[in-house]
Here is the input.
Amino acid sequence: MDNSEIRRRQQKRRIDRKKRQERQKKLRRRLFWGSAAAVLLAALVITVFLLADYINQPPAPGEDTPGQTSPQASQEQTVINLAFGGDLNVTDKVITAGSAGDGYDYTDIFTDILPLLAGADGSAVNFEGDLCGAPYGTQDTRAPQALADALSDAGVDYLQMANSCALNNGLLGLQSTLENIRKAGLEPVGAFADKSDFTKHKGFTLRSIHGVKVAFVAFTKGMDSLSLPAGSEDCVNLLYTDYTSTYQDVDTEGITKILKDVAAEKPDVTVALVHWGSEYNRQISGTQEKIAKLMQQQGVDAIIGTHSHYVQKLSYDPKAGTVVAYSLGDFLGDGEKSGTAYSIVLNLEFTKNNATGETKLTDCRWDPIYTTSFENDGVARMQILQIRPAIARYEADGINKVSEETYTAMKSALSKLEATLSEEE
Here is the structure.
């Protein structure tokens, strides 16, 4: 998908979101003036060919418009692409990276990976933090609203909220976070304001993406030993009954109940976002394998794992049309520990036969990304880069090339990712 198509989708997404026009104009200006002359020339040439059908913009993910047809759709089939990033960790370093005068602006952090997110028909990351006001930073994992706004501008649609940080600021903090996520034009998955909110949603999120019905459901192993108060047991979807201690007793009944409710809606695609495993550990536990098998038996097509901060093995079965990504690594974090500065954005292609209604996972690919840290005007900044294009720019001595140190680190990261993701079962 070329940059002009990405910009067209992003523009439609912005039009459909309220109260965000000024931020969107700012993003477009930055993207335009930050582009290289060669890229601008290519965009102009492409625009000539796209101008004729510019008006037929595709609807935003999850917001099909009557009478409009997705460019991926044909009479025979519809193809959609979903993108997934790993953990976004709210820390002091991440907060500082977006400081701007008296406020915050995180736009530049995500600019380079915008094609991976906005270029998909729907995208999700695991948001390990809360949006419930200051103080911001590591201690309470609180982030300013500007971070959610930047994610939305970059093309993210869903935030996994069933994770370790769900209760860091209590139920009131969770409720404020869910409200502010929606204010940013995003949709939280796996966490609910109260019992009535859970009952309303039945524990999952259902969206129509270009006519393909997609169910997103999320679960967490626990919440840093915190427990849900009496009467609020449904506020976060859980993988274990012993979620405050040893994580050994899989909540088979609870998981099955939610997934059966999902199946009752007859979705074409079911995606499970799971916060599981052990931090800074590449081992896959027996209970993880048990959970993955249970979910697949209940009709889950894609299982997307987070929490370990490392990229772990990827099990893609083209014949069955299923995938288990045990961990995508850190989408954005401090990157202080070895192996946490790089991760992947996973792209899954689903194809629906419009005659039979059968939908299947037809392609699975990944793009390596790297979080680089640098100082600008005396402030410690961060940016997420696509590894392969960044390596190519350096080797061609192109504009905006990375430092030699970052180039070397990226080469090493790419080699390690390829080894990890090509491992045989």
The two ends are 32 Å apart (CA to CA).
